Q: What sequence folds into this?
């Protein structure tokens, strides 16, 4: 079945540091890939997505590229801010009558001054 | 435009009690979903409704029932709560199936004693 593997957290960085959160997936066919972010006490919100191989999703300075050859969708940001502190979830969905999401376990990011 | 709303925000139950979690969306979305979030396990799909009038089991449906009351509303019922159902429950919706983005509610925190 489908699965998503994320790097374990928590990840602690100083403000303005470079961020990478690794995500790899297992799925047949051509899933869509997503990064969702969950700020403390809130629900999840979409950060970025990519729907086909070599697509790059980007939003708020975050980027991720859909790499089919390595089945990866790593999240990167060049300079993190304290306000980026949150839990980040990688997810995939398959084409079907409902866009059921398969999530990774989440990676907590803590950014300090 | 409230997006996805959930009630209640927090609930404490005793083992064996029943309750219904309510979810509504005002985005005219066709598909709706219920997830549970547990530490170290990401989000897991309980049930989903691809369109009004249809419901299907997700990854962890045991102990739950759902009702798609109309296009806007999708409720989750625990008939006889167990401590293993202590979790945070999220409702989500998407315009349709396939690779559509899901929009999440703020969550319901449930504690079963």
A:
């Amino acid at each position: 079945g489908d699965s998503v593997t994320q790097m374990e957290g928590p990840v602690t960085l100083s403000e303005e540091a470079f961020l990478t959160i690794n995500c790899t997936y297992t799925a047949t066919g051509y899933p869509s890939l997503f990064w969702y972010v969950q700020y403390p006490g809130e629900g999840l919100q979409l950060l970025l997505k990519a729907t086909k191989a070599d697509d790059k999703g980007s939003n708020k300075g975050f980027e991720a590229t859909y790499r089919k050859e390595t089945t990866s969708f790593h999240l990167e940001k060049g300079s993190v801010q304290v306000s980026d502190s949150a839990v980040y979830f990688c997810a995939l969905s398959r084409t079907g009558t409902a866009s059921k999401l398969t999530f990774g376990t989440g990676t907590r990011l803590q950014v300090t001054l | 435009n409230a997006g996805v709303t959930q009630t209640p925000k927090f609930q404490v139950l005793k083992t064996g009690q029943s309750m219904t979690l309510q979810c509504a969306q005002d985005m005219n979305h066709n598909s709706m979903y219920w997830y549970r979030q547990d530490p170290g396990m990401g989000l897991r799909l309980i049930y989903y409704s691809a369109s009004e009038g249809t419901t299907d089991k997700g990854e962890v449906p045991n102990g739950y029932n759902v009702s798609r009351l109309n296009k806007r509303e999708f409720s989750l019922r625990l008939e006889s709560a167990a401590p293993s159902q202590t979790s945070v429950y999220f409702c989500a919706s998407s315009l349709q199936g396939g690779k559509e983005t899901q929009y999440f509610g703020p969550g319901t925190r449930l504690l079963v004693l």
Notes: Chain A touches chain B at residues 4, 31-32, 34, 36, 42-46, 49, 51, 89, 93, 95-101, 103-106 (CB under 8 Å). Chain A has a mean pLDDT of 92. The first strand of chain A starts at residue 3 and ends at 6.
